[in-house]
Write a structure and sequence with these properties.
- The protein is globular and about 55 Å long.
- With 414 residues, it is α+β, with helices and mostly antiparallel strands.
- It starts with 9 loop residues before the first strand and ends in a 12-residue tail after the last helix.
- Helix 11 runs antiparallel to helix 12.
- It folds into 2 domains: 122 residues, 2-Layer Sandwich (Phosphorylase Kinase, domain 1), CATH 3.30.200.20; 252 residues, Aminoglycoside phosphotransferase (APH), C-terminal lobe (Aminoglycoside 3'-phosphotransferase, Chain: A, domain 2, Alpha-Beta Complex).
- Strands 3-4-5-7-6 form a 5-stranded antiparallel β-sheet, with no helix packed on it. Strands 1-2 form a two-stranded antiparallel sheet.
- This is Aminoglycoside phospho transferase.
Length: 414
Amino acid sequence: MGKKSAPVGQFGVHGVQSKRDWPCLTEAEIQAVAAQYPDLPPAPTVSWNSMRPFSAAARIDGAGCSERENGAGDFLIKRHHASLRGVAALQEEHAFMRHLHQHGVPVCLPCVTRSGATALALGEWTYEVFPLAAGQDVYRDVMSWQPYKNAGHATAAGRALALLHKASASYPAPGRGERSAAGLRAGRPLTSSLNAIGQPDFLDALQNWVALQPGLMPQLAHRSWLADCAAVLVPLHDRLKPHLATLPTLWGHGDWHGSNLFWQQGQGAHNPAEPQGSVSCVLDFGMADRTSAMFDLAVALERSMVDWLDPAENRRVFYPHMAAFLNGYAQAKPLAPQDCAQLGAFLPLVHVEFALSEVAYFGTLLQDAASAEVAYTEYLLGHARWFATGQGRAVLTWLGTAAQEPQAVGPKQA
């Protein structure tokens, strides 16, 4: 496996942290996984460990999948805890990826085991293996909630998301997870979903949805969570409710930001002052689910256009990038006035179900009460409350016009 590397931290709730939620993959488990794939070497070498949360991933030097050009190259092994992503959950994601691939979206398809599967269960872990994606990993060390490196990247990312939505429109699979007796989908943990948000009776649906989430109720028992949601979220949901009856649904990516994209090689790849050509590969469908195009577009804006890691009084909104992103999207999939209205209504709410899932993830699975508190107070409620501030209201007002005229750029403070 080669010499041991320095300790690897991870991206945490407040930035880079030294403590990892999930340990890096070990030499023994990498060899055990590699043995299940026909073209992977028996003694691969780790060249890099991912700092991203919720799973562990390592880039491996060695032979790639047999379908790769010349049958050789690097690949990525990704390990999930089975309570978060079992084989069935990964198969949902892989099926969506295959559909996109068949419709011209540049995705990196998973490698296949000796038994013909795309996901592997070993003990309490679930693994997936990918050949290294085409292009450059320009955002490897950039967290979510950080901006694109330049407006050219934002334009390219917006156009790529629109092309994904056009391809996804013909994908017929239902939303993730089983339906409850009341007809509400539980979904999967840590996905971008609108199972409760998409219901007209929001508080009732939210109570039912919360009860279906493993480990969530114990984390909310000491909180006045229903009153908090009524005070903070219901006024925002009232703006969304008129759009729900005619909302067209499709599978979205659920986590669209620069580090989940590989970029076409070119002069501007590492120079923030120069625009970069195009997205060469779309990665990481772990948060994908059946939502809607405008919900998924709102997720993309929430991920990269507001610097949530800054204190509220110093928070930056990246209006030029937001305008470029929307312009790129509209180049491939024009935005109608109804789309723009839906986008503004979704933006303050797209994080809600993911944030609540994080509360259960941190509090119950990881036993990390401090991070669960951040997920509840700063993420679930804090993001929504920000849209009631002057700065947040300005974003929603700007979207109402700029989404239809995306060349417009926001206030000077941005």
